[in-house]
# Entry
Amino acid sequence: MDNTLDETREPKSLKRLRWAVSIGALLLALVHFGWPKLAVDAVTLTLVVIAILPWLAPLVKSLELPGGWKIEFRDLQKARSRADSAGLLAAQPSRAEEFSFESVADRDPNLALAGLRIEIERRLSLLARAHGLDTGRPMGVGQLLRALTQAKVLTDEERSILADMTNMLNAAVHGAEVDPRAAGWAIDVGPRLLTSLDERIGEGRST
# Structure
């Protein structure tokens, strides 16, 4: 059975609780707001926030107050699964040399993910150049992905996967809290992804 589906399936009891909290808070807010002598104040706003908050949970699951954003391991695993299904991960990574981020993965997961992000951007730039898409000006990851997709070098799905992955890695660059297991993820996924991109760069240069 696919554990990914189990993780995303919400229990009915939790959904009913969300509805109960939202409806109850909204009713209280309406009563409070509708009372002639009462103006909109902090109480009303608080009740409205309580009504909305249960539905925002999936969006803020990575927000830990007062710490900051956290890169969750299951999101990295989903990115790996999508990349594997799309053919973006080589079956075997190239072992001609050790990638720089691998040497720091055990000591600093943030630095490892940041290093992987830099390696991905460098290869996307080389891939664009191999297909004659070099504009003479430096392009960011977003621009590179758009150019490569428009040139049919990458599919829309591949672009989406790489964009999502680099966005998560960007968070590591900016100091997001990283699950310690991310180091193992970087060592497993990073070399396979970079090897796949290197192969595409070689194919582009040979055409």
User: Anything to note?
Assistant: Residues 49 and 56 are 10 Å apart (CA to CA). Strands lie at 63-64, 68-71, 177-178. The helical segments are 3-8, 12-34, 42-60, 73-85, 109-130, 141-150, 156-173, 182-206. The chain has two domains: 3-61, 71-206.
